[in-house]
Specification:
The protein has 462 residues and is an alpha/beta fold. The chain has a domain at 24-120. 28% of the residues lie in helices and 19% in strands. The chain has helices spanning 43-53, 62-68, 78-83, 92-103, 108-120, 190-197, 217-224, 244-247, 258-270, 290-300, 320-332, 349-352, 356-367, 446-453, and strands at residues 4-6, 11-13, 26-28, 59-61, 136-137, 140-141, 145-149, 152-155, 204-207, 237-242, 274-280, 305-312, 336-342, 378-383, 387-397, 400-410, 419-423. The strands form 4 sheets. An 11-stranded mixed β-sheet has the order 7-8-9-10-11-12-13-14-15-16-17. The chain has a two-stranded antiparallel sheet with strand order 1-2. A hairpin with a 4-residue loop joins strand 1 (4-6) and strand 2. The radius of gyration is 22 Å and the shape is globular.
């Protein structure tokens, strides 16, 4: 008989005694030549991968290679595009600059310097992450903490600053390139708890990275358990952002401390916290393996809520059928579709970005194909400097074709849910490319946001 833990509603089968956890094997840019599956590519194609991988972070594990990629369909396979570097992720000029250095067998110092020069041109910290989001105490920044919206604080634990594999589109790519000046990471959590105690307007804590689920359970517990103290009762929701359900579902099934992880999450829920797993899914294929589904079941049985989100990406999910099927699968598995994002203006955006007009068409067509339970997904949403801006539609008003927009979240909470209008632009891919409609010279929030950027207004005073 398989032993069980008694969770909130249903028993969860434990790993069989004596079984060996799956072996986790990872490859980085230094190991491209050791990935057997890539040997079907030409030497030229592998060199192109090497060029890009020396600029943008690359990391993949054996589970993704063996279980998620259809190697008969590369390079078009969506999961292959999700994890393996492609030439188009860099501009032609940047690609050739790095390629020339590599062809010349340059030393590591020159390769690193060339990579850093290119990275500076890729907007490593979009939307004011370093300038506007980091709280100050006595004019000193709190390392590893961001506070952009009144109710929600982001925390970057030092033990979670890596992922089981890296997404090629990731807007946090700068966390993974070894530059300490670009990395958000908390050396210790004491500052976080003090900040939370002193800001009782904060109801939500988002633990992010990297991926917090790369941490051993005892490390994660060291961050979660203090949040159960009475003086932090106002922190009602603990969110954990993770891609582990795709890249390493074994974390919740048969890793050595998988059962302890489930007990930790259950204990946190029983203590009265709403624990939300913010799961990153960009394609329905990511949740189709048996172990991925088992991981979802085991997580849900602890009482956590799994909410799903992803950006709309060219080469991966730029069609309504993919999104509709993904949302239907998620609802069937007991997860809640949460966000469709617009690819951020950073890193490999040139390869993945989709015009806003196209993004709205995909979202609208996909939503039409799912039931009300799948229509919890909001979007397309731009996580821009002023806030999360949703494209609500395209229409004509007084013979002018316009985008209808609204803030889902804003640096100033008074901006939230206020509709505003931009001139229709079929090529625009981000908020800063849009112009106000109806002859207005600026959007309603622009003056206040500009003052925040100039530090004339503290963007974190609510």
């Amino acid at each position: 008989m398989v032993p069980v833990i008694q969770f909130l509603k249903k028993p969860v089968a434990l790993r069989q005694p004596g079984t060996t956890p799956f072996s986790f094997q990872v490859y980085t840019e230094h190991h491209l030549d050791k990935i057997d599956a890539l040997k079907q590519l030409s030497a030229h194609q592998r060199f192109e991968m090497k060029v890009v991988a020396n600029v943008l972070p690359f990391r993949v594990n054996q589970y993704v290679i063996d279980e998620l990629i259809d190697w008969c369909s590369i390079p078009d396979d969506p999961i292959f595009q999700l994890v393996f570097p492609q030439k188009g992720m860099l501009s032609s000029a940047d690609f050739e600059q790095m390629a020339e250095v590599l062809r010349g067998n340059a030393d590591r110092g020159l390769i690193q310097q060339t990579a850093n020069d290119i990275r500076k041109r890729l907007n490593p910290h979009p939307a004011g992450q370093q300038l506007l989001n980091v709280p100050l105490i006595e004019n000193e920044p709190l390392e590893g903490i961001q506070h952009k919206y009144r109710e929600t604080v982001l925390f970057f634990p030092k033990h979670g600053q890596v992922c089981h594999s890296y997404c090629t589109f990731c807007f946090r790519w700068a966390q993974f390139i070894g530059d300490k000046e670009l990395r958000f990471s908390a050396k210790e959590a004491g500052y976080l708890y003090n900040y939370l105690r002193n800001h009782r307007n904060i109801s939500d804590l988002l633990i992010t990275g990297g991926d917090p689920m790369v941490m051993k359970t005892d490390h994660l517990a060291a961050y979660l358990d203090p949040l159960l103290a009475p003086e932090l009762e106002h922190v009602q929701t603990i969110r954990i952002g993770t891609k582990s359900l795709t890249f390493w579902p074994q974390r919740f099934v048969n890793d050595a401390d998988a059962d302890e992880l489930l007990r930790l999450l259950e204990r946190t829920v029983r203590a009265g916290k709403h624990v939300a797993i913010m799961a990153h899914y960009g394609h329905w294929r990511e949740m189709m393996t048996p172990i991925a589904r088992q991981a979802i079941r085991r997580l849900r049985d602890t009482g956590v809520v799994i909410r799903t989100q992803a950006p709309l990406l060219n080469h991966i999910n730029n069609d309504a059928d993919t999104w509709a099927r993904m949302w239907r699968e998620q609802v069937q598995l007991g997860m809640t579709p949460y966000y469709m994002f617009v690819e951020r203006d950073t890193g490999a955006r040139r390869y993945f970005e989709v015009p806003l007009a196209r993004a709205w068409e995909v979202y609208r067509e996909a939503i039409q194909k799912v039931s009300g339970l799948g229509r919890t997904a909001r979007g397309p949403s731009m996580s821009a400097g002023p806030g999360k801006v949703e494209i609500q539609g395209v229409t004509e008003i007084n013979a002018e074709k316009v985008f209808v927009l609204r803030f889902i979240q804003g640096r100033n909470p008074d901006w939230v849910q206020r509709p505003f209008f931009a001139k229709y632009d079929p090529d625009a891919t981000w908020l800063d490319q849009l112009k106000p409609a109806f002859g207005e010279d600026k959007f309603f929030f622009q003056d206040e946001y500009d003052a925040m950027c100039k530090k004339e207004i503290n963007p974190r005073v609510y």
